[in-house]
Amino acid sequence: MNQQRYSISRRFLTLCLLSLIGLSAAAARKAGQNKKEQEPSDRNTCPDTHAWTGKYKNYSYGFTIVIPKDLKAFWNSATCVSGPDGCTCMSDHGRIIPLSAEPYEPERHIEVYAGFAADLDKPTVSAEITKHLEWVRERSRDNNTEVRERSNVIVGGLKGERVVVRYYDNKLNAWLIEDFIELIRRDINYSLYLRTKEENYDNDRPKFDAIISSFRLTKGENT
User: What number of H helices and E strands is found in the chain?
Assistant: First the structure.
């Protein structure tokens, strides 16, 4: 499950979601979608077709966040399928929040992602941190990464770690900052992270801090 998480959320979705976001936003404007939170009973509106604002509740993994004012959040999971019986989606893993105006800048966004942890038998925050750093190193030039901060945190009542990494991204040919938090509740991993160019970090970090402060746990189908 963890391998699927990284292949979908970080390698595939990060490259494809910005295009999907543009299409989703256009579809939302065309259809005049209501931006309020979609309840599970709202079966005829696929959640990957519109932007979300304000408070977002994740029913699959049991958490809520508040999207900062003037920002929009978008579906961060496998594409839903709309049919005659309504909308069918796989598990809702979270949201991606672009931090620039359209057309959105690549790799300048916040993501909130929940899924099963790397080791279902004995999941640990340390293992999730290692996985995340491995992903960063794969993208960096000559393994050129610098861990600027690493500290223990408590978010939503869960103990975790926050790591800030600076690295040179091979694909963007630019210095990036990855600021992320990993949390564990039983066999579920909650990952909150900011990815942005180094020159934007001081401006983008307060938005990330606001989302972190708003994170709350609830009950969900996997919790």
Answer: 4, 12
